[in-house]
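Entry 14. Structure prediction run on the chain below.
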Amino acid sequence: MINSIIEYIYNLGKMYGVNPFIFAGIYIGAIPFFFLSLGWFVRNYKKNYSVALPLISAGFFFISAYLYLLLFGHDVPPWVYGILVVLIIYGAYSSIMSTKKKIEE
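Output returned:
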């Protein structure tokens, strides 16, 4: 059963021109860098330093796996783009809310 799921996911990757394991690797690999960027942002905010670079860094790591899909994927159905937009908006909102809590501490 697990092999058939892996095969299904791999076939989806072939159909859309992306390797799902690379996508997952980018997604998981970016998590620590995203949180480091958030910590950098909070530190700079509290010290009244510029927060532009930490925000750009956090944003890049947040969407890096989706950038891979958008840049290298082909024939991706329009509904996938809609889901990506919703995921990015929700994730950004969630990150903003948790960052606000850290700033207040």
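Residues 20-46 form the longest helix (27 residues).
Filed with the rest of this week's runs.
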